[in-house]
């Protein structure tokens, strides 16, 4: 039986309507109600059989505004909260077992990774990018702890938020065939701000300013004083930590990882539904770090959201996935949701090779495909992708030089950095989610060799398995 948890106190109940009443009576200081029943707002009419995360929700479901800024289905709030708990995991929480054995850091400040794992990327300029994850994370926690920030939207905005999701709906194969007849989309596909001409001035200024930048002086291995640049919502070095944790997780039989130079880029406070852009930034961080094809297009820092909008508009000018301009009415300076077509257009316009694949439960050709849940097809496709890029398949943890993958489903998009197979027979995707920042426990282990008796606790926030994926019947991959 599912229980719904109050976001403001420990109260929980299996009746969502009772929880709504509890919040209204017990927490009257909250100006705007955090729950809105789906039936209380109108939605756009169905478009060509396409569906959105909002329409895919249970008909009796309500929504709650999490303090992280996301609007989450009431039925999924418990699992969403669990990921936030994993996001806050400290070494003290993860390192203790029933025998009170703590994490042992075997080395720090030395070359902590093999050549395949790589160390921090050495940039050609004197300034290196290295997310050290200290002051920026405490600042993020303090921003989220302010109850008054939990409900920055008015009641009307609450209703608008329910029209959409955090990224554009994946295009089905049928929708792709209809791109020649593209028409203007509405809130069901582009989110609550589908028809705005410009985002609010305060948000534009926040995006122009970007996340907080901290520059520190450190001695290099050669004894030279070097400036390291730390950006509050970008963290480098997460993948080598995860690969060590997977090595130590005895429940795993096989694990694949992409190239280690992928940064974890997360959303800034109150920015809204820019997950698609954040995942593009993670893909670009790989291109920069690995100096992959097209890296010369991204000198210096990762392009900002506003710069990515300009690049997508330029791709449309070149005729690449140009139906997106008709569907969106243009995205420059707006909060309209984007998705795989826009990410693909951007990459192709810069001559960066990529390929998009759609997986839809209602558009499968043979009996075998129809009998297999669509998310299991995703597992097989991704496992094949990684195994084809692996030299030594006998290793438990296979570290490849492959790019990460952009995965979109209705309501959200993620960056896939790996896949793990468990001895029990189950499979999980390993992801970087722009909705959740790296935990303090992960941050403290970056750049170290370590041992822990409970690796699964620190890995939890990066796993997406059957429980997460089976809720959806449509996915799109960009690789």
Could you characterize the architecture of this molecule?
By secondary structure, this protein is an alpha+beta fold. Mean pLDDT is 75; it is low at 28-61, 96-101 and 109-165. β15 (405-409) and β16 form a beta hairpin. Helices cover 32% and strands 18% of the residues. α11 (305-317) crosses α13.
Task: Supply database-style keywords.
3-stranded antiparallel sheet; alpha+beta; 479 residues; Cathepsin B, Chain A; 8-stranded mixed sheet; UFSP1/2_DUB_cat; 18 helices
Low-pLDDT runs: 28-61, 96-101, 109-165
Q: Tell me the total number of β-strands.
A: 20
Major β-sheet annotation: 8 strands, mixed
| Cα-atom radius of gyration | 22 Å
CATH architecture: Alpha-Beta Complex
Report the portion of residues in β strands.
Answer: 15-25%
Shape: globular
Number of structural units classed as domains = 1
Given helix and strand content, the structural type is: alpha+beta
The CATH class label is Alpha Beta
Helix content: 25-40%
Query: The CATH topology is what?
Result: Cathepsin B, Chain A
The overall pLDDT, averaged over residues, is: 75
- Alpha carbon gap, first and last residue: 38 Å
């Amino acid at each position: 039986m599912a229980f719904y948890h109050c976001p403001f106190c420990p109260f929980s109940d299996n009746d969502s309507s009772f929880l709504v009443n509890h919040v209204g009576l017990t927490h009257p200081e909250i100006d705007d109600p955090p729950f809105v029943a789906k039936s209380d707002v109108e939605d756009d009419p169905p478009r060509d059989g396409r569906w959105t995360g909002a329409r895919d929700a249970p008909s009796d479901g309500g929504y709650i505004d999490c303090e992280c800024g996301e609007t989450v289905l009431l039925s999924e709030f418990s699992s969403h909260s669990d990921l936030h708990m994993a996001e806050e995991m400290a070494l003290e929480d993860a390192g203790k077992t029933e025998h009170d054995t703590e994490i042992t850091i075997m080395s720090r400040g030395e070359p902590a990774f093999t050549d395949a794992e790589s160390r921090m990327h050495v940039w050609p300029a004197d300034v290196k990018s290295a997310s050290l994850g200290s002051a920026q994370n405490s600042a993020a926690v303090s921003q989220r702890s302010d109850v008054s920030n939990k409900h920055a939207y008015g009641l009307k905005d609450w209703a608008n938020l329910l029209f959409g999701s955090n990224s554009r709906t994946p295009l089905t194969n049928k929708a792709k065939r209809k791109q020649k007849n593209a028409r203007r989309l509405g809130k069901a596909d582009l989110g609550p701000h589908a028809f705005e001409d410009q985002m609010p001035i305060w948000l534009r200024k926040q995006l122009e300013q970007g996340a907080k930048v901290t520059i520190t002086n450190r001695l290099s291995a050669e004894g030279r004083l070097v400036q390291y640049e730390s950006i509050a919502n970008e963290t480098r070095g997460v993948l080598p930590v995860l690969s060590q944790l997977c090595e130590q997780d005895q429940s795993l039989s096989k694990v694949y990882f992409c190239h280690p130079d992928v940064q974890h880029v997360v959303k800034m406070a109150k920015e809204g539904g820019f997950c698609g852009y954040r995942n593009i930034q993670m893909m670009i961080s790989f291109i920069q770090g690995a100096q992959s094809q097209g890296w010369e297009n991204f000198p210096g820092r990762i392009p900002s959201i506003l710069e990515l909008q300009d690049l997508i508009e330029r791709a449309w000018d070149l005729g690449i996935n140009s139906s997106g301009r008709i569907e969106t009415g243009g995205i420059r300076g707006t909060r309209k949701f984007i998705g795989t077509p826009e990410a693909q257009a951007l990459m192709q316009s810069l001559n960066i090779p990529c390929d998009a694949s759609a997986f839809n439960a209602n558009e499968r050709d043979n009996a075998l495909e129809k009998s297999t849940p669509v998310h299991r097809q995703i597992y097989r496709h991704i496992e094949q992708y990684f195994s084809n890029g692996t030299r030594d398949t006998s290793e438990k943890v296979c570290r490849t030089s492959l790019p990460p993958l952009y995965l979109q489903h209705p309501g959200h998009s993620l960056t896939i950095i790996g896949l793990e197979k468990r001895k029990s027979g189950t499979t999980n995707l390993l992801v970087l989610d722009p909705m959740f920042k790296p935990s303090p426990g992960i941050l403290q282990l970056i750049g170290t060799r370590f041992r822990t008796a409970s690796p699964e606790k620190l890995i939890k926030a990066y796993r997406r398995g059957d429980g997460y994926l089976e809720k959806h019947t449509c996915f799109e991959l960009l690789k």
